[in-house]
Amino acid sequence: MNNSDSFTSVEDEIDFKGLFTYLWKSKFIVAATSLIFALVGVFYSLSLDNIYRSEALLAPAESNQPNSPLLSQFGAAAGLIGFNLPDASGDVVATAIATLQSREFIRRFIDSHSLKPALLAGYYDGESGSLQIDSSIYDAEADTWVGEMPTDQDAFRVFHRILSISENRTNGLITVAIEWIDPTQARDWVAWLIEDINALIKQQDLSEANEALEYLRKQLESTQLVEMQRAFYQLIESQTRIVMLADVREDYVFKIIDPPVAPQERLSPNRTLISLVAFSLGAILSVIGLLLVRSTKL
Prior knowledge:
Layout: H1 2-25, H2 27-47, E1 52-60, H3 67-80, H4 92-100, H5 103-112, H6 116-121, E2 122-125, E3 130-133, E4 138-139, E5 144-145, H7 152-162, E6 163-167, E7 174-180, H8 183-222, H9 226-248, E8 254-258, H10 271-297
Antiparallel strand pairs: 1-7, 1-8, 2-3, 4-5, 6-7
Helix pairs in contact: 2-10, 3-9, 5-7, 8-9
């Protein structure tokens, strides 16, 4: 048994040396194949658009939930006269983040800033250093689409893919980022998103406060109870402060800690990594091919 095991070990060693010798003699085939794959990887990476990431760091604005405690008092006072109000308490920041990613908000954002041509027919021109519109897809002069007109869902899918929003649970800071082929547009879109969400939430709170004021004034006129009148006056004063605060504060939900900038360095693609992966793949496939050829000859 010992002699048989020794013979098998020597035979395996001889086969290994023969395999190595065979591959070494075919090293030029391996090198040529790897080089071809690497060149393909280079050309492929060069065909990809540069992607730039612009982001803004935000913090929740102070007193960004003015309605919650006031509406709680409002509901208690209304309960005294037999009228129940729904509980309006909630996390305004969480609602704003969810709104930023919602279909309706993004649809209105794209429409209000006329982003659909850039999203669905845009390409980055390196010579001009700006995004251009493909005339075979969209006729900018006639303001019409060539062929079938894309839907709002098409624009939403593209924008939702390039938009990212994250919240640091430790310190409560929020990062809003756009990854796009045009660095200047990426910066502008982040800034517009912040402006629009602040304006939207502010308008909603203004509308609710004005409705509350209208209701309170009507109730004040209809009651003769001194205690109820005092409660309504206090609530009217509180709702008036909400309206005044919304009128003077631009950063209503989010205040900007670090504003967005037009990035100079691309985020992707990593052309060096793509070329190295292609080179390695070519080497592996060429070795496998040589081994298969050798096995058929044995």
